[in-house]
Write a structure and sequence with these properties.
globular, about 325 residues, about 5% helix
Length: about 325
């Protein structure tokens, strides 16, 4: 575990704030680092209290959920090593390979932001205080090892590589494999179980890895395959296939079709599935988890869908701008 003494709040646009003081003003602190739906959408935005935290242009920002008080928490470019070569009439500055770039995913719990870098010379898992100080490397990638799909749950961090699912403590200790040869493409945690998607099935295993995996559902070879991951919420998993949107009862694996729409970027909130409709220019829709008529929320071309409290945050395909909209489709706000 590496600890970096960052006394300066890198790239901040506001005055430094004691993270514990800020947390005391929040009415809600996370028990898990991000929701299953947000993780499935790329894990680039998480919320806690009155703040959202997100990755953009290689940096980590926080912003009030009303769009105010945008603050750059961490900018890896500010920490790049610089080598000066002499002698020279003009000093030649060689920028070393950025060792902290490729911030791919973030989670937030309490005063800590946890983030994952899956590529480059510093791939691994880190944490940093919400004021941008005290950056700590919890896990360092070895050789060609790459990391994906991580979530922080209680005192444990769960993540996967190309083959296995792992967990490691939030102090960077006690790394262990959960199960064996998972070859999982996505995973979620619900009620003490880790559910993960394979090519033709969904399986579950206790979060502590104390027993062998159990198959929830197996998709026969002739059935239409899963195309865009899944999210597990309470008693069901929701997933998209090339012929529509489905839900799977976790107790018995029964499969129920909700819509014929070709959906992607699915997320969940209070009895509704939010998604981009591929055949309708990736516009934003929602549909009840019981099926029925879908509701159009926005004409924007949606790249990813994040939900924090009663707001939807999404990136637009063409502009890569961040927007916020109410879950009923009103009050569209463009974030700076």
């Amino acid at each position: 575990m590496k600890i970096f003494n960052n006394k300066k709040k890198v790239g901040a646009t506001q005055n430094p704030t004691d993270p514990t003081e800020e947390l005391n003003k929040n009415s809600y602190l996370n028990e898990e680092g991000n929701s299953s739906g947000n993780i499935s959408n790329g894990n680039l935005l998480a919320g806690q209290g009155d703040w959202i935290y997100y990755c953009f242009d290689g940096s980590i920002y926080k912003q009030k959920n009303d769009g105010s008080h945008k603050t750059k928490i961490y900018d890896p470019f500010d920490l790049m090593m610089v080598e000066l070569k002499e002698p020279s009439d003009l000093m030649m500055v060689e920028l070393k390979e950025p060792s902290y770039l490729n911030i791919d995913e973030i989670n937030v719990i309490g005063e800590w932001i946890y983030y994952l870098t899956s590529r480059g010379t510093s791939r691994g898992i880190y944490k940093i205080l919400t004021d941008g100080s005290n950056r700590v490397q919890l896990l360092e990638g070895e050789n060609s090892e790459e990391f994906y799909d991580f979530c922080v749950f209680g005192e444990w961090i769960y993540y996967k590589d190309q083959v296995y699912i792992f967990r490691i403590s939030t102090e960077g200790k006690n790394r262990a494999i959960i199960g064996s040869n998972n070859f999982a493409s996505h995973f979620n945690i619900v009620d003490g179980w880790l559910y993960y998607q394979k090519i033709t099935s969904i399986e579950k295993i206790p979060v502590d890895g104390s027993s062998f995996p159990t198959e929830v559902i197996n998709f026969r070879a002739e059935e239409v395959p899963i195309i865009d991951g899944f999210i597990a919420v309470e008693d069901f998993a929701y997933l998209t296939k090339t012929d529509g949107l489905y839900k799977v009862r976790l107790a018995d694996g029964s499969l129920i079709k909700l819509s014929n729409d070709i959906c992607t970027k699915i997320n969940y909130k209070d009895g509704y599935i939010y998604y981009a409709d591929v055949k309708r220019f990736w516009n934003l829709y929602k549909i009840s988890t019981e099926g029925g008529e879908k509701i159009k929320l926005s004409d924007k071309h949606v790249n990813c869908i994040y939900i924090v409290e009663d707001y939807i945050y999404f990136m637009e395909y063409s502009s890569y701008k961040l927007y916020r909209i109410n879950t009923d489709g009103t009050n569209l706000l463009e974030f700076d």
